[in-house]
From TrEMBL:
Upper classification of the organism: Eukaryota, Fungi, Fungi incertae sedis, Mucoromycota, Glomeromycotina
Domain of life of the organism encoding this protein: Eukaryota
Pfam families: Kre9_KNH (PF10342)
Transmembrane region(s): 152-170
Region (Disordered): 121-150
Organism: Rhizophagus irregularis (strain DAOM 197198w)
Domain Yeast cell wall synthesis Kre9/Knh1-like N-terminal: 27-116
Keywords: Membrane, Signal, Transmembrane, Transmembrane helix
Protein name as annotated: Yeast cell wall synthesis Kre9/Knh1-like N-terminal domain-containing protein
Length: 171
């Protein structure tokens, strides 16, 4: 019995290093895609993210669009991927989901809701956020919390699992 518990503990430990923490930057509520052309998808990911994923386009407002695959076997370390959007896809309420390549129900990240504009619309360009200059007064510096992704595989979840399994092993 102890061997099984130790095995689970080791698997949880390994999961902390292969966990996916992905934040989709583009598109978003601020940045749209354009139908009928190639669009660039952008994201950030933790340095330990090495497992490839699939990218699906979803929209709850379009009944016959379940999950539309736009890319497969994407390396998370790339940070961007060019995808082709069909000419008749202009509508609002779209989202992208990044999933496990073998299981669409295992979602690593979900984008903000965005719009796909009609073909011929000028694409939006992503602008990197610039830090806000801090005041020169003697006031205390402000702390900006780190944003988290919409991931079910966050680092904290893996650490919690590891701690729980380790506690079970000890008792």
């Amino acid at each position: 019995m102890k061997i099984i518990q130790i095995t689970f503990c080791l698997l949880a430990f390994i999961a902390t290093f292969v966990s996916a923490t992905i934040n989709i930057l583009f598109p978003s509520s601020k940045y749209y895609l354009v139908a009928g052309q190639t669009n660039e998808i952008m994201w950030t990911s933790e340095i330990t993210d090495t497992l490839p994923f699939s990218i699906f386009l979803i929209n709850a407002n379009i009944s016959d669009l379940k999950q539309f695959a736009v890319a497969n076997n994407v390396d998370p370390r790339l940070g961007k991927k060019d995808v082709e959007i069909g000419a008749n896809m202009n509508y609002t309420g779209f989202q992208l989901i990044f999933t496990d390549i073998g299981n669409i129900n295992s979602i690593y990240a979900t984008s903000e809701t965005f719009e796909i504009k009609e073909a011929g619309t000028t694409p939006t360009a992503y602008s990197t956020p610039t830090p806000t200059p801090s005041p020169t007064s003697s006031s205390a510096p402000s702390v900006t919390p780190k944003s988290s992704s919409n991931s079910i595989h966050n680092y904290g979840f893996s650490v919690l699992t590891l701690a729980a399994l380790f506690a079970i092993t000890l008792f």
